[in-house]
Amino acid sequence: MTVALPRRQRPPGPDAPWVDDVAGRLVRPYTVSKGRTRPSAHFDLMTMVRATGRRPAGLQGPDYDRVLGLCDGPVPVAEIAAHIRLPAAVTKVLLADLVDCGALTARTPSAVSAGSAFRTDRALLEAVLHGLRERL
Fold first, then answer.
1. Beta-bridge mates of residue 117
2. Most buried residue, 5, 77, 83, 118, by CB count within 10 Å?
């Protein structure tokens, strides 16, 4: 019986990340953010970001390009992190870099006023939970 060893492969494209069938992404997440763990601006997971159409001169690399490619319309930080498969903390650092250079705009969700009642829609939460369980 022969056992197939995990292989390293490079997806098509000059800036595509190296991946390993078992280990996953070979460049560790905090290498992408140059070891930074705190963004220069506040983002929560529901902050909406959108590309301005400017291309950042100083920020280059596949991760920045992928983020910009996802931001044609308003997109929440959590969705971007999921698509690029990086921790939210690293994603926030990348997004802050892009906001700082004018390539993205960010808008935080409006806070719920203290006097208003916040209702949780049980059916919506159950549908989200069901969808998450199907993905696992």
1. none
2. 77
DSSP state of 113: P
Backbone angles phi, psi at 121, to 5 degrees: -85, 105
| Nearest alpha-carbon partner for 10 in 26, 23, 22 | 26
Encoded amino acid at 12, one letter: P
Q: How far apart are CA 26 and CA 134, in angstroms?
A: 27
In this prediction the pTM is 0.60
Segment among 13-22, 26-35, 83-92, 105-114 with least mean pLDDT: 13-22
Give the C-alpha separation, 111 to 105, whole Å.
19
Distance, in Å, from the CA atom of 98 to the CA atom of 93, rounded to the nearest integer, reads: 9
Question: What tokens does 112 get?
Answer: 């719920």
